[in-house]
Amino acid sequence: MATEPGINMEAKIDARENPFEPYLDALKKVLEDQDPIFMIGIVVSLAVVVITVVFLKYLLSRKTVQSAVLLVGLCDSGKTLLFSRLLSGKFKKTQTSITDSSAPYKAKNERGSSWILIDLPGHDSLRPQYVEKFKSAARAMVFVVDSAIFQKEVRDVAEFLYFLLTDSVVSRNVPSLIVACNKQDITMAKSAKLIRQQLEKEMNTLRVTRSAALSAQDGSAGASVHLGKKGKDFEFSQLPMKVEFLECSARGSKGEDGEADIASLEKSLALL
Amino acid sequence: MLDFFTIFSKGGIVLWCFQGTGVTESFTGPVNALIRSVILQERSGNNSYTHDALSLKYKLDNEFELVFVVGFQKILTLTYVDKFIDDVQLHFRDRYKNELEQKGARTLLSSCFAFEDDFKMLLCEAEESSKARGPTSMRSFNASLKSQKTVKSMIETKGGDKGKEQGGKKNKNAKKEAPAAEPVKGEQAKAPASAQKTVENGNQGLTQEEIIQKKREEFIRKRMWAPAEKPSKSPKPVKEKTKGKEKRVWTLGGNSTKELDYSQCNGNGDHATGVHVLDAQADPGMQLSSMKGDLLAVDYESSEEEEEDVVEKVVVADTSKQIPKRGAYGGMFGMLKGLVGSKSLSQEDMEPVLDKMRDHLIAKNVAAEIASQLCDSVAKKLEGKVMGTFTTVASTVKGALQDSLVQILQPKRRVDILRDVLEARSQRRPFVITFCGVNGVGKSTNLAKISFWLIENGFTVLIAACDTFRAGAVEQLRTHQRRLNSLHPPQDDRGRPVVQLYEKGYGKDAAGIAMEAIAYARNQDFDVVLVDTAGRMQDNTPLMTALAKLIAVNMPDLVLFVGEALVGNEAVDQLVKFNQALADHSISDKPRLIDGIVLTKFDTIDDKVGAAISMTYITGQPIVFVGTGQTYNDLRSLNARAVVGALMKA
């Protein structure tokens, strides 16, 4: 009987698949018992959940990518005018900013990369909360300094710069730092080199006084990040991030209708 | 007439500006001063501000994040400015709605706002409307009501006077009890007319003249009717007078209780007198208006106000696009509607939440007027703001209040004592800190703590004992000096103690001691001089003068006001009076005011930390030190976020 070995073979194959068979059969039976629409519903919802999870992961990972350049500095240093010049090239009268302004900026390089330029208010009572809000999204910071009255303000400038550099988020993300010495159109403006030297000296002193400052009343101590190398005088080259000093003039030497002198700033921004 | 008008975004870009003819100075300075002192210090409750010779009025548009500022000379009193700003705001919003609605600053930078023509038109309208309400021409004598009075009525005799008054009073009582249906109707007919007039004016300041005129007419009406009643009333009081002394009859002290039974004669007797009075009137037409005037001497104004309010509410409801049927939707639906979709905040929405927040702040020991000023400022900041989806009014208001509180507590200048001491050392002069405050707040204790912190950081300290009044003050400081020296033995190369005390005993002039101490410190190369003064109440004028003299003469680098965290509403009074005294008695035109605050006894309050807010709000100066105990180590700096967190905690 030729069919018998065939049947025997089938019985053998069946026997091999046997351990799974009953389970598969039971599963098939249960599935078939259910309404097909219900099955489709379950499948669709599972698919939606999976897609959502993937999407969320993608979005969250997008957020932590730093895509903004912050314009920071003391009050009246020219940040808002610089913001206007960089974006539109026009001169606009400005007042003390109370909130931040942001706009997408197209860098002048071959890639044509565009990121968001954010102008933060410089007033002392608003500075900390706005820096807090935007520091994690920063890929670079443009620190605007008023070169004309720098001598009087050197301690305030240095304190703000120290506060920025010792911030835990900033020292983790290491955004590049561009120090723009603004208001170069005024005759008494200091050069970028001089400003750099004075800031280094000041930061050196600040390292000592800030670490000796009193802790807050609920026990939280100040920033414990130490700038530069211990035992040596502070220099900006010791920092983990790229620091660049350049000169610019948002107002421009030809008055309000002329062009602004921000070529070097634009070049640096293009390299980001 | 206006010096300038600017419209700028909250991000700082000026969208449009107007400078009056003949005005040469730029307005950037005054407007920046306005922003810094009013908006950033959360004093935006009242919307005007004076800077030098200019008076500035401003308005915040929170939906599009704009600020409208107008400036004019302080000596001019322009009445149309408030309404003018509102009109300009509405016009600007309507015209540039498209540009303003877009997020991001690109559109603001690139678009050009050519608003001159509209502005000129609005300005002309506003000026004309104010001119139209010029001073009213005086009426001639014949036209006035005085000429219509008889001479006899003007004569004031003693009896007649009383009679007039009594007549007036009786009249009032009669009118009050008599149900006057017709007069009410007549009054209702008249009131809307007058109310319409006031609503049409629209500007509160200009209706004052209307109100004055109305009241004048009413008063004259009252006077007109009083003389007419006088003849009927005058005989009675005169008769009573001539009778002489008679036995007093108590109406309720009688033997029988029949007199206490008012069931019959309750309304009748008065009705009779009321009718009697009515018959005495000459003209029935005048009678109606007279009853109206006297009947509601108090009620007339209130019911007229109600009419006014009703009409105004209707008018306001028409102009604004609010749908009053929101309440009719029922709880569930209304709540959902409130959550989803963009809704702009109005004063009524925020009112209950702000009241609750105000009470919460007061419960946390913030001074009452500071709390209300803060809430007003937050209301101004949020008015008209469009809320996002799924945000409730309460959460928006709480968030805004939290931001404002953090902003107030953030120092407005750099606070780094050690750095400043180093700077003074490099200039070869001592850094002088003066401590002032009322009695018993912890000046001497915290002075010792601060000197401990300074010597820990390697500075030499001279303590000037300028408290020459309190018993044991000098000895207390001497004990502190000995202890600090024993904790830090003299290690510097000069081998001299790190802390020294400069004292001249009791009863001497504090300002003189301070001056000598500073000179001594300069000679001996001390880094810091800490000047301890006697505690004094802010109302004590001679002592406040002495303190002001000490500060004005010695010009310390830092004037610290020591205040305890337990103080409540007193903090406002203390700081205001201290600052006032320092400003009044200073010799220069730039007086030295309080530069910083030391908040002591912080460990005694758990989370009732409101005193910190009150003190920083009043002075605008930062809290430099926080004293958290009674040993040398209990000195901290302020963490604004932690304090605000404790304050907002339920």
TrEMBL record, chain A:
Predominant place of localization: endoplasmic reticulum
Spans through the membrane: 37-60
A GO term for molecular function: GTP binding
A family per Pfam: SRPRB
Domain of life according to the entry: Eukaryota
GO biological process: Golgi to plasma membrane protein transport; intracellular protein transport; protein localization to Golgi apparatus
Membrane topology field: Single-pass membrane protein
Keywords: Endoplasmic reticulum, GTP-binding, Membrane, Nucleotide-binding, Receptor, Transmembrane, Transmembrane helix
Record flagged with keyword Nucleotide-binding: yes
Single GO cellular component term: Golgi apparatus
Gene3D superfamilies, alphabetized: P-loop containing nucleotide triphosphate hydrolases
UniProt keyword annotation of Membrane present: yes
InterPro entries tied to this protein: P-loop_NTPase, Small_GTP-bd, Small_GTPase_ARF, SRP_receptor_beta_su
Cell compartment(s), UniProt: Endoplasmic reticulum membrane
Complex and partners: Interacts with SYS1.
Function: Trans-Golgi-associated GTPase that regulates protein sorting. Controls the targeting of ARL1 and its effector to the trans-Golgi. Required for the lipidation of chylomicrons in the intestine and required for VLDL lipidation in the liver.
NCBIfam families: small_GTP (TIGR00231)
UniProt record similarity statement: Belongs to the SRP receptor beta subunit family.
Protein name per UniProt: ADP-ribosylation factor-related protein 1
Organism: Oncorhynchus mykiss (Rainbow trout)
Lineage, highest ranks first: Eukaryota, Metazoa, Chordata, Craniata, Vertebrata
UniProt gene name: LOC110503251
UniProtKB/TrEMBL annotation, chain B:
InterPro entries xrefs: AAA+_ATPase, Longin-like_dom_sf, P-loop_NTPase, Sig_recog_particle_rcpt_asu_N, Signal_recog_particl_SRP54_hlx, SRP/SRP_N, SRP54_GTPase_dom, SRP54_N_sf
Disordered: annotated segments: 156-203, 225-247
GO terms under biological process: intracellular protein transport; SRP-dependent cotranslational protein targeting to membrane
One cellular-component annotation, GO: signal recognition particle receptor complex
Biased amino acid composition, Basic and acidic residues: 158-188, 237-247
Similarity-based family: Belongs to the GTP-binding SRP family.
Protein name, UniProt field: SRP receptor subunit alpha
Organism, scientific name: Oncorhynchus mykiss (Rainbow trout)
